[in-house]
User: Fold these one by one.
Assistant:
Number 1:
Amino acid sequence: MPWIAHTGSMLRRYVQVAALLALILVEVPAAVVSFCLLVLTFGLGVVPLFPLQVRLARQVAERRRRLVGEWLGVRIDSPYLPKPPPPQRQADGMYRSHRTLYKSPRVPAWNDRWKWLVSDPATWRDCVWLVLDPVVKLGLLPLFLLLPDRGLRVYGMWCELVLAPTAASRLAGQVNHLQRVRNLAADTQSAEMRRIERDLHDGTQARLVAIGMTLGAVEQLVDTDPAAAKALLSKAKEASSETLTELRTVIRGIHPPVLAERGLADAVRALAIDSPLRVHVDVDLPHRPEPPVEAAAYFAVSELLSNAARHGGAATATVDVSGNGSDLRISVIDDGMGGADPGKGSGLMGIERRLAAFDGVLAVNSPPGGPTTVTMSMPKVLPNHWAGSLPKLPRWKVALVVTLWLTAWCPLFPQGIVAGIFKVIGFEEKAWFLALYMPEPWQWPVILFMIALGCTMYLTATLLPVCHNKERWWAEATPRRLWFSR
Amino acid sequence: MGGGDPSSSMVQPVNRVLVAEDLYLLRDGLVHLLQAHGFTVVAAVESGPELLKGLIELRPDVSIVDVRLPPTFTDEGLQAALAARQQVPGLPILVLSQHVEQLYARELLADGSGAIGYLLKDRVFNAEQFIDAVRRVAQGGTAMDPDVIAKLLASNARNEPLAALTPREREVLEAMAEGRSNAAISQRLYLSESAVAKHTAGIFAKLGLAPSDDDNRRVLAVLAYLNSR
């Protein structure tokens, strides 16, 4: 019975409208208190009251954002700027705020907080919303009563207009996020560098010193005791071989050669072959991702496979690498005994950190008894459009463009500009200039028309491919490589 | 007989060698080493396209090829070797690399025609063994790096028939997989040739492989078995 459902939804709408109207009883006192606090803050200088006002307004506004999201399906994100970080203690034990030094962090922290609250446009937009919202609701009252559906939609639009983050605050949030990711990536990288430095210092370098010393001894012995020299030489040879083996391990930890040579698909296959597990590999990527992405994906798969073999007691595993639009997805499933926990150290945290540099996330599903499924996703790491997947110019348009390029000179130069010059200098010869055969009053209009026609033809020939391939132009003009590769 | 382009190499000793290596010092060293052991270096090239051309046109008795070559510095040499062997089946090629990958070993062995080698560059240090490997490949045999074999056995760790081998049999298997003949194995492990033959028969029985008298064929069978996971 549709009408019952219909009445039900109508009824729900009316209840929602009633609730929104009832909320005026909260908003008006909140607005009055806010107003008083603002007057006290800025009129009388009782600045400590300002954070109270902001907190009050934000509470009310946040609740309304959630309500509008739940009832009307209008998603409104929080627009506030991120909190300032706590003041940093300097080497001399002082805290700096602008050009003043403080002994305790309280004043600098307050300064930061004040600046954060006052400079956030969302603070003031909240105030505007708090004052105007009751008015808007009362103004919408007739619409609410007659067409509650439409009325609620208009109300949602109003809320979105004032409460949603502005482009600037969205960008500020993004910058903040990027900064955090950058710091994380830099940290990870420097830790990696230190590890490599240690490996080279303790292993390779020490061995090379030993080889050098052995060779020095050989130099001294070679005349007096050739047999001993020979024995030392073979020792040095052995040591150099060991050094190479060690160096190979270090290189593998930096960037596995097979990854550099063959790309992700074959590198994962090589991992599968090297693993004691029976690994089934399925890679579906039309092109190679950027090297840093490949490396992160490779190390993640490598870690997961060795985890599965070492801790999980698995016998078989499946690795699936695929692209979903511009997202890279990797899943590793093994039939081990499960119980893997990213919180408990292990390699999973390392993988998470590595992926974080690309906004990647890792989901682990590992019930006790298995199987373990680890899914990783790195958003927007593959180029949006693989070159070639974009539409090409159809043949008739190509023909048109070529024809235009070949013929546009004719109206523009001989029929237009040259005829115009002949006319200006009063040259008698009409030659093949069409305009000069026209009756006198028509000559200039025809000349100008010819010039315009020529220009239009050139313009069309230029714009036709540009407009058609706009997406391709954009895709090619957008820098994708933010890093240097090989 | 183990494939290869045999009629000439059967009659006269193998001596026409091609060397492909982009580092001048190493290339020069290889050329000298080979010349000192009686080989004639017919070409010493330094890039992938040159290598492929040389392999096809000169058909050397054996070629020593670096995996990473210009212009791409990826696996140019390996690709050239595979392409040449597709055109000239069984063309003897010994691939050298700074690192060994089972993936590459599999690709090299995939055509099953032998006359193939895959060694770490460090193996050049031991000139005798290296020259021995070059000769083996030229004669249609196989020369796999001990590292490849070790990895191969490690990834077969859960293979039950392999686990049933005695330690001695395992040693023999390793040496055999590297491409050594019974005589060479007996020398290396200080066993009599008949003892090696006995171990070999035991290994083949345990792994369920058909025995064969031909050294090269036997090696290929073992490698195929290990790679068949």
Note: The domain at 261-378 of chain A is CATH 3.30.565.10 (Heat Shock Protein 90).
Number 2:
Amino acid sequence: MNQLTRSQIRDLMEQVLKNQGKVLPDDDAADLREIGFRSLDFSELALRVEDETGEELNFDAPGLRRIATVGDVLDFLLQLQQQ
Amino acid sequence: MSHATSRTVPAAHGEPAGLDNRVVVGGTALTWRTLPDVRLPEPAAALADSGRDALAAARHHATHGTELLLTTLSRVDDTMRADLRDSGFTVTTLRDGVPESVPPARPRPAEPGRLWLLTSGSTGRPKRVGHTLESLTTVRGTQAGRTWLCPYAPGSYAWWQVVTLSLTQPGQDLVVVEPGELDDWPAIAAAHGVDAASGTPTFWRRTIYRDGAALSRVPLRQITLGGEPVDQAILDQLRELFPAARISWIYASSEVGASIVVHDGQAGFPVRWLDQAAAGRPTLSVRDEELVISSPYHGVGLDGPVRTGDRVRIEGDRVLITGRLDSDEINVGGSKASAGAVRDVLTAHPAVAWARVTGRRAPLLGRMVVADVVLTPGAEQPDEAALVRWCADRLPEHAVPRRIRVLTEIPVKETLKSDV
């Protein structure tokens, strides 16, 4: 299975924000609310990961968890690829 | 088992008024009268291999009133053949004017004058809708002489619209384009003096995209659009190419016939047309965002208000038809987006020749709006981010397509529609 690295997912996240006229900070601890990364952006990022890997992500698998920072998003998508 | 049939056919209809109109098919100029004669059993399910075979079958019906279901050879699979034979039809393949027939599994008496159309049906399985030549003929008043292009698949509702016009009105000639000739139709049309053409918005977009210069050489005086939602962008593009032509869009289906005809060059129809009951005219209504039509041109068994399955929205003083109810509404995290409205915004971009908008499964929100586009050759090519910004300036946030894929060619089906 073709998996993206954390760094590749970060590049995609940067692209999603750039398309919205926003900037992704270098700090993984940055708060998503403060940088304006919202549900629509998260969903778009997930679709971009799917398009890059050619695999559908299974969002039902890991269960709900708190996603509050940039690092949470990257970890979550990294984990989803491994399901 | 197959055999040529020689069953006799009762005369019912008589000579159609347009019998001496010119009919160009396969590059050869004939008239309805000089088309090869074809003998059909009845009731017949005629599977035509070419436009010429289909026209010959239509003329046979118009002259003799033979109960007929007419479609293309490629549209009918083995299951459908068996179903037709179970329903009492002799299944007749027409190739170069030669009929080959398989008798019905359950013979029944024919219903003189009956014409059957195969529609796509809501289940994806074709269903039969009963008509007559009369109920399929929607242009009745005397018309200026025209040479019409017929680009449609034989036996479809749109095909019958053009064919009945030519069969029933003197001075309405016909130039038939076979599916294999579709990409070159402007050259064929220009060579044979076509000055009126009817097609889906996808058909027109595709033609402008492939070779707008070739299209502008066709001396069109009447341009008709139908079969799909008609947006302002395509009407404006055609107006620019043909400033003097009458540009009309028509809402018609095998279920309710031709019910809306608009000539003012604007997308949608005036709000004041809603709920206006008049004898002999369709009544248009909106129920729960769905277009509902009571039509005198309905298919058999479909009298009274018919829910069309088409979604509408009212914008200012116009009623816009945005797409099919089951595919137009995209629920993005509880907020509703109209695929048709998003498509209209995309096609209004000067560099977008065609767009398809759909919902795609997405986390958190359930679905997200995504799009495929074909860009206009020669125009400055926007990237995905620029198209997203274009939409973001014109649509609510949840309706903005976040993934926009650029295709190299406008996809088209046999019906000349896209899956939009």
Note: The longest strand of chain B covers residues 352-362.
